[in-house]
Design brief:
single chain, mainly alpha, 8 helices
Length: 157
């Protein structure tokens, strides 16, 4: 590797590895949501914390909403994992995380923080990181190692 290649890699990265990065992030975040949703749906008492959060946030129909949100996480997380309808599934999970931030996560931040400290704590929230990952997945697409990529190749010939 000569110095120009090294500078290019240091400043611009390597697009040769991009598909593997997309795969790693897509499968990891998809599995996280699929397993989390499955635990809420299929483990006794799994929806109880979700229900309690929804009641505290005064969300209408908290019991039904708890099952709905858990189902969304399970189904959309599974879709993102395999890369099938991954952009719509990522959009749904993005909305789910924005709602989670607005109904629960913001209330956990300490009061009377300076703007910079508040931003620091806000960006530390895992839900914010999930939002950023979903935005990236929507913009980048599911990558070459996905059902969507294979399907697009078959349908768009």
């Amino acid at each position: 590797m000569d110095w120009r290649q090294l500078v290019h890699y240091a400043l611009l990265g390597s697009s040769d590895l991009e598909q593997y990065a997309i795969l790693l992030v897509r499968v990891s975040i998809g599995l996280f949501f699929a397993v989390s949703g499955a635990n809420k749906l299929f483990v006794a008492g799994g929806t109880k914390p979700v229900y309690e959060t929804l009641v505290k946030a005064k969300v209408p129909f908290p019991q039904q909403t708890a099952y709905f949100v858990s189902g969304v996480e399970f189904v959309c997380g599974s879709l993102v994992t395999v890369g099938f309808l991954s952009s719509p599934a990522s959009l749904v999970l993005l909305i789910d995380m924005i709602v989670a931030i607005l109904t629960e996560a913001l209330s956990t931040l300490p009061k009377n923080l300076s703007p910079l400290s508040w931003l620091d704590d806000f960006l530390y929230l895992p839900e914010v990181l999930y939002v950023l990952f979903f935005i990236w997945l929507i913009c980048s697409g599911p990558g070459k190692f996905s059902v969507d990529y294979w399907l697009a190749g078959k349908l768009l010939r």
